[in-house]
Amino acid sequence: MKKQSETRPGRGSLLIIGGGEDRKHDKDILARFVELSGGADRKLVVLTAASTVPQEEWDIYDKAFGELSVARRSPLHVATREQANDPAVVRALDDADGIFMSGGDQKRLLGIVGGTLIETAMHAALDGRGACIAGTSAGASAMTAHMLADSDVELGPEKGAVSLGAGFAFLLHVVVDQHFVQRHRLARLLTAVAQNPRLKGIGIDEDTALLVQHGVGVEVLGAGNVTLLDGRHIVSNIDDIRKGLTPEMIDVRLHLLPSGSRYLLCKPEDKAGASHIADGQPVPVPAPLREFFDNIV
Amino acid sequence: MKKQSETRPGRGSLLIIGGGEDRKHDKDILARFVELSGGADRKLVVLTAASTVPQEEWDIYDKAFGELSVARRSPLHVATREQANDPAVVRALDDADGIFMSGGDQKRLLGIVGGTLIETAMHAALDGRGACIAGTSAGASAMTAHMLADSDVELGPEKGAVSLGAGFAFLLHVVVDQHFVQRHRLARLLTAVAQNPRLKGIGIDEDTALLVQHGVGVEVLGAGNVTLLDGRHIVSNIDDIRKGLTPEMIDVRLHLLPSGSRYLLCKPEDKAGASHIADGQPVPVPAPLREFFDNIV
In chain A, whose CA is at the least distance from the CA of B180? Predict the structure, then answer.
């Protein structure tokens, strides 16, 4: 694990994980989460509300973060909106340096936590205290303002087959899909982009994460790839076809970022604090990638 | 089945089928092949050389074309280059109006037929007599000059994981992949495009066909979609990474054409004869699609 500065930026970072991150061996992604949270001596909280088996989720992360020498680790189990609005419960987040949202169902997560004191506390942690917010699988999809909620896409894109819900809005102007290549979700993400090309699509493979640091840049880590779909130039007939049919889609811009890709996207003077993007020679940013992340990072 | 003019164009059409076309029920694609060949009274030949079970292949198409009322149908079984160069064998193609290449292995097909009198006769049928050449699965991949031959791509694109062979060159400047969405071949086609973006990628789903009529246009038919990958604008690090690693790929242009898409791409005066593209109101051609097919159709 590369040593990072402990200087905290004004705004924290988002670690968006495509599900199935390694929890038993190298734990690359979880170790980076610990680092992004400020190190193993910081306080980490695992929010299990997306899952119907929260204790099992916690058992996994309790063991993994224990093996990463994080002493101050705790679960935040909330099963009702009452709990999510209980100041005594929410207090657990007040000094959290890292908040990790488990997998499960993003609709369940938002149904319980959306608009509650827990959501407010997470935004405060991210924006005010430079905490790291991580989410895996459902926790990854929940990070965006427009959240991929339901879909019955099968082989090809289908008009009306993807519905969006309201997520936590840590990230704007995008839709995140996870387990991307493993569950063959290109058609689903293309559908979301075709339905409103204002939203750009981010597909994250399993055991892979996209690190987004607002005002700084992005980095891909883990074992797989991140696929980006930019539909802003699209020519499509989606408005002229019936629900359930496949729209024609001309000129979707696809970018594939393998693990290790990292881009400092903003000028140094834009930086609010230290960069959490991996060090190295500065990499020139190709224009289509800069345009993709323009209103995102 | 829509009635087509029997006027034959100077150059025939290519029906590139993604494998698994329906042979038992509506037989949409096979019926269109009959139509493109001039109708059920014309002579159709099924070239089975890609398959190690040629008689089984023929049994399937014998039944299917029989049900489509094609009386003059025959198999062309060739298992050796000697047979493929035997004028008595090749004579079967001399007055064929439609030639259908079965599935199997495109390397086997080219190994037996490549550079033989059979290949010469197929080019003569297409270019000189306006015959239709169809190919499904391996037969589809074999149609291009640079043919997708081998690959061990798994989840993501991998440098060096796709190798090309020499195909029949009925179609230039492209690589065709088949069973596209069913066998999750986006990564493989992306790899081929990244390795040399001069080649554009055409991915055809099962029970789906791309009809290409040189000098006229293209049409998609069947049950699925055709995915087009244009890598000419790509920014990639593929030349700087080791074999087996995933290249970064920025700005691949993706076009998805569902069944029913059809474009007249060339000016009427370019047409050598009748159009085999489905009738209807002329459809404006989006610029990125025109550019994709620029040196292909």
Answer: A155
